[in-house]
Amino acid sequence: MSTWEPVIGIEVHVELGTASKMFCGCPVVFGDQPNTAVCPTCLGLPGALPVTNGTAIEWLARIGLALHCRIAPFSVFHRKNYFYADVPKNYQISQFDLPVCVDGWLDVTADGEEIRVGIERAHMEEDTGKSLHQGSGGRIHAATSTLLDFNRSGVPLVEIVSRPDLRSAAQARAYAQDLRALVAELGVSDARMEEGSIRFDANVSVRPVSTKELGTKVEIKNMNSFRSLERAIGSEIDRQIGVLEDGGAVIQETRHWDEEVGATKGMRTKEGSSDYRYFTEPDLVPLEMPASTVERIRTDLPELPADRRHRFGQLGLDSHLVNVLSGSDPDLRRVFDEAVALGADPVISANWITGEVTAVFRRAEASKAEVRIRGSDLAELVMMVKQGTLSSSAAKEALSGVMAGEGSPREVAEARDLVQVSDEGLIGAAIDQVLAANAEAIERLRGGEEKVLGFLVGQVMRATGGKADPKLVNALLRQRIT
Amino acid sequence: MPIEIDIAHVARLARLALTPDELDRYRSQLAVILDHAARVQAVDTTGLAPTAHPLGLSNVFRPDEVRPPLDVDEVLSQAPSARDGYFEVPPALEGA
Amino acid sequence: MSLADLTIAEAGKQLRSGQATSVDLLEAVIERASFTEAQLHCYLTIDHEGARKAAESADRELAAGTDRGPLHGIPLALKDNFCTRGMTTTCSSQILAGYVPPYDATVVSRLRSGGAVIVGKTNLDEFAMGSSTENSAFGPTRNPWDPERVPGGSSGGSAAAVAVGSALGGFGSDTGGSIRQPASLCGVVGFKPTYGLVSRYGLVAFASSLDQIGPLARNVGDALTLFEAVAGHDPLDSTSYPGPVPEMRSDLEAGPKGIRVGVVTELSGEGYEPAVSTAMAEMLNRLAADGAELVEVSLPTFELALSCYYLIAPAEASANLARFDGVRYGLRVDGETVEEMMARTRAEGFGPEVIRRILLGTYSLSAGYYDAFYGQANRLRTKLIREIAEVHERVDVLVSPTSPTVAFELGAKTQDPLAMYLSDVCTIPADLAGTPAISVPVGLDHQGLPIGLQVMAPALGEAVMFRMARAVEERAGFTARPAMAGLPT
After folding, report:
1. B49 vs chain A: nearest CA distance in angstroms?
2. List of domains in chain B
3. Dmax over Cα atoms in chain B, in whole Å?
4. Which residues on A lie below 8 Å from B94 (Cβ)?
């Protein structure tokens, strides 16, 4: 229906959670007293020099490999020159035409549709310090001075640039969420949006549906949650379409998302267009990554979220279950995998994990109680239900016992007297008793009043103290009556 | 070919507040120097990689280990203006 | 003779034989400075108190049997672009006037732990940009051989101090010839090591891919001693050479016999003062007579080295000097906005030569010009490195004058930047190539001004370079001292 197609690319900045900064030994901290994690290098003092954190480079390669990038055998650092008070050297050490990771992709699912988002590059750089604009109401234009804290200066920062493959705000959000989950999974960053350890900027343009040529792109900044990212992009798409439909032209610029107003706002263009004068950082030497190192890092990668979803699908889980299970706590997913490996039915196991196990887990978490469950416990539980040894309600009770540390499902079921009676002799005796006392009911059933069967089953269950396997009771009753 | 120099733009990029007279003087000096330096363009350098390190070093890393930071008072003692543990500067241009 | 006129080796003997103490040596050089400083202005800072403490400590240790090596108790001068904790480090710039670094450069900490006594910080062209030490915000240094003339630069303060005896030895930094050219003009030995052999950590950067720290001394042996004290891998400098420092002493006295000496065609002829050319020719004859094999060699890219340098060095400098912005240290000139504050601070804080090079570097890196200027210069640099490596398959060392001229008069070139730049034409190739080079005094011209000969070697070829330098020194028999030295004791 719409005649406009949005084209969106996302730039992501991820602060790595290394112990020390990118080019010096200062600790990577969050929320400390200002200027207490600084040294000559990250403060840009005269004479200080950078030395590359080897772990950060490995972690960048890990991210690159998880995004199916090619790891460049030779890459270099560049200086990106621009004056800004919280950039201590007034240049940022970054990468330009020879980044570590190039040409990858990430599969994401949005609105039930799987799309492949191209990754143009992922490179290493250093974070800047933080500016606190002082003044009435904390508004920038009313600021009377700016305070600078350089604790964040020099924190390892990975920039991941997607190709303009996204076509809606919802897709952009799905990409951002999946990328965040991936980075968290890799254990290289805590990837917390609210602390700024993962930050998203979007490049948005629109074009007539039938054209291939890209429209003028606008960069959107200041999106502090996935929700605001989706809203900001949606609002910017609408704004651009409005401008174009009014016969205007979109201006290439950077716009800030204003959460309260619910719209993007143009920033005053910086004096003089940006010219970063990139050149090779002469204080550092080139990076060479031999194939053997790349393979070692690749081998050490954990299972990636997309691969895991695919595997869950192949186990017969429907897409809803795949999504819920994928979003479950990693420890619980491990319990699921172990149970399935022991032969438990995957769909039933998944239902247990995403349902009752998660519920107990959450309650325990809230009360800070310790819970435990092993894959073998879940497998045993599923098996006992399948064999009729436990009713589903008894199984829930058994599970809570297991998770409270009372033992295996069988041990708990026995201790708590939860095991179903499946002995035909015992059940038969109870049926005989019930039938003898309910001759009238038998007649009504024979006369076609089916609901009476339920009444009779209930009587038998009561006679067995609720432990008889209801399916078996049902079957035996019918045998005797017909 | 005479070398074209937008000296005001260059001075802005380099954050140097120069007077029009100074800009004129530097432009003519740069023109002389660049005219001499432009001789490098006469050489065919096809196939030559730019020099990264004269001895060709690569892969110099440090272990991910924390070293003690500087004392904040010593750091701020050199600051032209400091407040509450922060460096202090005049406000930025709106939105810049 | 004053203790201030001793070589480091002689002073070391006197310290260990008990003839003199470190405090005596320090007092002698400070006394010398008290006579010469008013006229020469070698020092920006003399650290009377700190130096005295260090000298007393050195004496106590030596008396107690602790000997930290050949620099123990020796008074030295450091160029004021080395960071010294607790001692001002200005780079001769208003933008850093009064700046006190919170840390020591690696070279400084190595010297301190070697027992050296740091007399003070010497004058230089602002941020080491210049060839005459006239570009100092705190006034020029003058040449001890003729105070109407420049000492060369940018390490003019250290060179003049060593020449006149206000230090027994010193250190400078060399980016385009800033150690060797002033050494030549002041009649002392100046050595720029292979790039990476001495840590740059704590040296205020001018052009990172070229900067290298090295010694200034009264003779080749002292230069070697000073170098050994600071050379070697530093994990704080990524460009530092990780291998061992070459062994340089065993062949030091082996003489010129059998050494293949390349005489660089491109570094002769027009623009070279006759006295300079003659002194070099005479020295070559003596070397040949003693068995050196002279080979005329041509390195065509040397003709373009100066152009190449004036594209690469200012480009790197434009970024290296961006950090001087009035935010965290140094000068601040107020402004309404932070942008205005920075631009005013930088325009007022930097002198004209520094501003000129920042503009030049910014221009050659900017969009549209990068490839034709900076990019091309860096590829040409690779060509030069290859050319030098190839010629070293045929010759062991290369020789040339260190400077086309002897010391020139103050003000002679200040109005003509290009003429000033040309005084580095002989020294720049070794900086671009990262190869070692040394200037050794070989004589005086008819005006009594010193002439230096430069010996260059392949990367890490310090052993053969020092051997040749020693051979040159022995044959030159250069014992002259400026008249200002050897003054009252």
Report:
1. 12
2. 7-41 (1.10.20)
3. 57
4. 140-141, 268
